[in-house]
Amino acid sequence: MWTAAWAVCTAIGLYLHPDGVGHGTHQQLGLPPCPSVLLFHRPCPGCGLTTSWTNFLHGHIGAAFHSHPLGVPMYLGFTFLGLASLYGNFKGQRFMIDSKLMNQFFIGFVAVFFVFGLIRMATVTGYGGTEKEKMWQALLTPKNQSNVQN
Predict the structure, then answer these.
(1) What predicted TM-score, i.e. pTM, was given to this entire model?
(2) Given CA atoms 114, 117, 119, 121 in this order, what sign does their dihedral have?
(3) 13, 28, 111, 116: which is deepest, by most CB within 10 A?
(4) Where residue 145 falls among pLDDT bands split at 50, 70, 90?
(5) Residue 149 domain-assigned?
(6) Does residue 7 carry a pLDDT above 70?
(7) Average pLDDT over residues 15-30
């Protein structure tokens, strides 16, 4: 399962083109913009991950870290799990990730991810800028009362 999930994510990342804004690449798949960006003009903890992975897969390392600093380590960890699982399948062994050390590492990474995300959400304003985000924000912005009366 890890290998298949990694292969699908990698294929999608190679298919997509990184959005120049630094986030919003997932919108090329028909997915909507992030609600946090639309409603608060602030990034959620995961904003920029798809763009980071896509930039990394296309060889734009600096842009990948700029889109989301944790995207590259996350993709590399995912790649390790996918390839180690594939290797285990060929050797007839199950790749065990449910160990005390792996669970501690995972919990630590998730904690860093959310703390980073909450700090970024609290400090970054004016986030947005893709065409779909602009369209949605125009729809969500209340009309001026004087325009309604005319």
Answers:
(1) 0.83
(2) negative
(3) 13
(4) very low
(5) no
(6) yes
(7) 92
For residue 61, the model assigns a pLDDT of 96
Q: What percentage of the chain exceeds 70 in pLDDT?
A: 95
Residue of 55, 23, 16 whose CA lies nearest to 129:
23
Which amino acid is residue 97, in one-letter code?
A: I
- Total domains, the chain: 1
Q: Are 66 and 43 in contact (CB under 8 A)?
A: no
Q: Which amino acid is at 134?
A: K
Q: Which domain holds residue 38?
A: 2-140
116 domain residue, yes or no = yes
Q: CA distances (Å), 148 to each of 68, 70, 112, 138, 139, in order?
A: 41, 45, 47, 15, 15
The count of residues in the chain is: 150
Alpha carbons 75 and 83: distance in angstroms, whole number: 12
Q: Phi first, then psi: what are they for 47, rounded to 5°?
A: -60, 125
